[in-house]
Amino acid sequence: MLDIWTVMLGALAVVVPAGTSVHIVLTKRNSSAAIAWVGLVWLAPALGVFLYLLLGINRVQRRAQAIRSDEASDDLMEQVTPLPAAALEGLLAPHNVHLASIARLAGRVSGRPLLAGNAARILVDGDEAYPAMIEAIHRARHTIALCTYIFDHDPAGLRFRDALARAVERGVEVRVLIDAVGARYSRPSMVGILRQAGIPVARFHPELFTWRMPYFNLRNHRKILVVDGRIGFTGGLNIRHGHLVKEAPGYPVRDLHVRMEGPVVAEFQEIFAEDWYATTGERLRGTGWFPPARECGDVVARGIFDGPDVNYGKLQTILLGALATAERSVRVVTPYFIPDPSIQDALGVAAMRGVEVEIYLPENGNLALVQWASQAYWASVLEKDVRIFLTGRPFDHSKVMTVDGGWGLVGSANWDPRSLELNFEFNVESYDQGFVEALDDFVDERRAEGREITEEEMRRRPFLHRLRDDTVRLLSPLL
User: Fold this and answer.
1) How far apart are CA 261 and CA 279, in angstroms?
2) Which domain holds residue 28?
3) Looking at 74-88, 126-140, 398-412, 413-427, which range is the least confident one?
4) Residue in 371, 316, 397, 369 with CA at minimum distance from that of residue 478
């Protein structure tokens, strides 16, 4: 009998990793991630298979794609008038006409229209963003849609809870979507607190093992607030007290949001409606959610949807196109920098052909493994003439990119595999010179406060630190 069990266990030790490897090869579009998973499955079969079942399989059934053919979505596209890339050339400054090629690429890749007639302003930290968001909630007359990764049970979260509860009492239709992992960053969860206040709330992609785990995949990392279908907020800010830097929280976190009005807000609402439908099965329809578009400014912008579904790889393709188009400057602010080979090459090629490429990163990250892996990439881009500036405290969670002072990108995505391949993200691109100048002013502040790190400094780092970072770098596809 012992021999039979030995044979059966031996067979399982081969069949299970083999079956798992087949699934990995057939479903993983990223070759590096596939190789890493296959290696882990065979080197440590029990642990590898368990981790793959837990973290590696895309279980998100995007029922929300059906909404693309829904009446609300059709009505939305009838309400907006896309701006052709050729027309954009007439709006750009003469020295930035080449940026219209980014618009052509982004339109082809994203499938989203480029929209004129918007107003936009940046909001730095929760100190500026939260009051503006809460004021918009107080003024809401018809609908409020709020999507966030983290919604903490703390003073900031309770302020939003109170504002949303008063809106419900006024008869405003409110929908709040919180990622199931992000909802557990504080206890008790705000999901229950919001429900007690009569606020309709749902958790995105809940799983059996949904605890506070920063390395989970397939999360809804989008941060969107839409009020009455006309005022939209997006960026990198979660809802937590740490973003109120001026209130001196225990762990302050800097970040940036943008407030927009105009036709582009319909794209904010559309992606929220997709996510809400995917989570709850409820379709958001009617003019309360999708009012007729009206122009209210001169900003040209487009929403970019990205995620491990039909939107897979769209943002990364646009980033590569922007790097290839740049003629004078590229500026990137991101808290997490783990570039894949294509991004590394694009940054290096841009710098070596004379573009001033600057990357702004936190000197001390909030996730140790990600910080160590990131540091392993610094030397490889520094040797290609890319400049890296390290910012100190507070920890900077902002996500910004500008090109040649005429194209800007702001949103929820980081420069790492988690954002570009594994999570659901939302970003906004803009071709308005005034708005991009405001983003560049924000970057200038980071530069004034930070310090530049050199290739020589990286080479002088202790051997054990370099060994640690390069070892963790091997796990980059899984981080």
Assistant:
1) 27
2) 2-56
3) 74-88
4) 369
